[in-house]
Amino acid sequence: MTTLSEFGIRTNGETDWVNITGQVQKITAASGVSEGICVVFVPHTTAAITVNENADPDVPRDVNFALNCISPDRREFRHGEGNSAAHTKTSLVGPSLTLIVTGGKLLLGTWQGIWFNEYDGPRTRKVHVRVIGE
Ligand code: ZN
C-alpha cells in the first residue's frame, strides 16, 4: 500500500521553525499503513526539514541561532536573489526525512518532533508525504 499527500504551511518571519508533527502523524494514520516507511519531502530551495526537540521552545530557537552563525549573509555571495545564506542552510539541513511507521504511527522519540525550517520567509510553502507499507 502507498499514499501520497501534501499540505501547505504559511511561515512567519524571515526564519521560522514550524512543528508539523501533528500533520504528518495524521496523514500517516489516515494512510492505512500499519508497518512501513514515511518519507517527508520539502520541495523548496530555501526551506528544509529536520527532527529535533519538541519540548523546550528554546531548542529550535537556539539551533536556528547557530545556523545563522554558521551561514550569515556575506557580501562575497554572488547569487542575484540575495538569499545565498538561506540556500546554504537548506543544504546543511536537507530536504527530506525517512521515518519508521509501526502500529500505524510514526516511531519518534519522546522528545522528538518534526520541524519545517523556513530560511527565506515569510512564504507559503508545501510539504509532500509518501507513506509506504502494509
Ligand atoms: Zn535564491
Describe, in plain words, how this protein is organized in 3D.
The chain has 134 residues and is an alpha+beta fold. 25% of the residues lie in helices and 39% in strands. It contains 3 helices and 8 strands. It has helices at 21-31, 58-70, 84-93; strands at residues 2-10, 16-19, 36-41, 47-53, 96-102, 105-106, 112-118, 124-133. Strands 1-8-3-5-6 form a 5-stranded antiparallel beta sheet, with helices on one face. A 3-stranded antiparallel beta sheet has the order 2-7-4, sandwiched between helices. Zinc ion binds at residues 79, 81, 83, 87.
What attributes characterize this protein structure?
134 residues; alpha+beta; five-stranded antiparallel β-sheet; 39% strand; binds zinc ion
Uncertain segments are none
Oligomer type: single chain
SSE pattern, N- to C-terminal: EEHEEHHEEEE
Strand percentage lies at: 35-45%
SSE inventory with pairings:
Blueprint (H helix, E strand, L loop, with lengths): L1 E9 L5 E4 L1 H11 L4 E6 L5 E7 L4 H13 L13 H10 L2 E7 L2 E2 L5 E7 L5 E10 L1
Antiparallel strand pairs: 1-8, 2-7, 3-5, 3-8, 4-7, 5-6
